[in-house]
Amino acid sequence: MNLRLRGRFNRRDLLRAARVALIATLLIAATYLAVVSLLDLVVADRLTSQVDRQLADRIETARTNPFKAFASSGVQTNGARYGLGIYGEPIALWALTNGGQISRSAVADPLLPATLRPPATGDTASLNYGIGGSTYRLQWLRTSTGWLLAGESLTELGHVEAVLITSEGVAFPCLLLAFFLVALAIGLRSARPIETARKRQLEFTADASHELRTPLSVIEAEVTLARSQPRKAADYEESLDRIGHESRRLRRIVEDLLWLARVDAEPAQPSREAIDLREVARSSVERFTAVASSSRQHLELAPAGEPAGPLSVTAPTDWLEKLAGTLIDNASRYSPEGATIRVSAGMNPESSRVVFRVEDDGPGIDRADRLDVVHRFRRATTAGGGHGLGLAIADSVARRTGGRLTIGESELGGTLAETSWPKAAGS
After folding, report:
1. CATH value at residue 373
2. Residue 95 counted as domain residue
3. Which residues pair with 408 in a beta bridge?
4. Whose CA is closest to 361, among 390, 386, 382, 341?
């Protein structure tokens, strides 16, 4: 088991989870001991109170009907047995003079020790006293002729308490071990996503610093080179063009990072409304037609299929526009000149979900890279000049609006980026 755990979790995860489980187990142990101690006290008090009530009943019977009370040991006048049920002991009965001498006792009652004396004050009193090698619970009652004394051995009561304490002692280590293992399992399960998130954060920080450092380094180098010696105007223009290009690249990276950070940090989404995906597809094609034309690419809107009418998704409008624009821009960026980019919105008949598709006839994405490219700063190719945030933004929008983004192979031969949502009610 230890080898399997170490194979799935590193040493730090194991130590952290074990430490948390140990602390939780110690708290449970302290709580358990406090609870069972209180329980033992309550049980002992209840049992002692029951004995006292039976002793009082025995003495009252002796006071009102001494003949029957002293005729038998531990038996009430109605024939019922005194004591704690099946755990009870017979209740002994003695009559004593004012001077403490025994004047009468029930059959087979033990002898009282010579040191036992009636209480100095009061009419009644209860106490524990050793008689004949056993501890008895005694109760005194003053009468007109002296004292009545009833006593019951606490042997069976002690047996009940011993069984209770033994059971608690046996259950204690088993309970702690079970709780420790459960807490350890919960800790390891909790530590794994936390550790995964920490690693992703470190990777994201490293990738972001690399992506930001590259254009900054180019800008710094161009400025240094331009200032190093007098140059021709055309050379300065060329340097400024490169600086402008890197500045725009840097701005896009920063804007995308800020958008992702804002979406991740928002406790609640913007107002949502039913948006027609077909209208989103149409307006997105209109927006990016000029961009595709500048790269000699053909951007087209696929004809509306079945069912007729709007296909609504409940989401913030600007988020869906951001998703559509990101997917189209991504397809245009990584497709060659003359490529065809097709945008469509429809219904998946198999899953009854509405879908938004952007597909192209470009180089496509290898099957092994399709799951990884939706992560931040992940690219299937270095061509296209992208910075690996487009599909991450699209995936974030899809997940935050209750949909999912999948990357596949287009019928055109290139990449298919498909986002699907449950159909909005009433659409």
Report:
1. 3.30.565.10
2. yes
3. 416
4. 341
Mind listing the pLDDT tens digit for each residue in 301-329?
888 666 666 778 888 888 888 888 888 88
What's the rounded Cα separation, in Å, for the pair 202 and 219? 26
Mean pLDDT of 203-216: 64
Final residue of a structural domain among 115, 131, 162: 162
> Which amino acid makes up residue 46?
R
Instruction: Please tell me the total number of residues recorded for the chain in this structure.
Output: 427
The helix/strand/coil state of 172 is helix
* 377 membership: H or E segment, kind and range: none
Assigned domain for 183 exists? no
Q: Which amino acid is at 388?
A: G
| In-domain check, residue 238 | no
Q: What are phi and psi of 346, to 5 degrees?
A: -165, -165
**Residue range(s) defining the domain that contains residue 337:** 273-422
Q: And the tokens for 249?
A: 């690249």
Q: How far apart are CA 292 and CA 298, in angstroms?
A: 6
The total of structural domains in the chain comes to: 2
Q: Among all chains, which residue has been given the structure tokens 């998946």?
A: 348
User: Which element (helix H / strand E) includes 395?
Assistant: helix 390-400
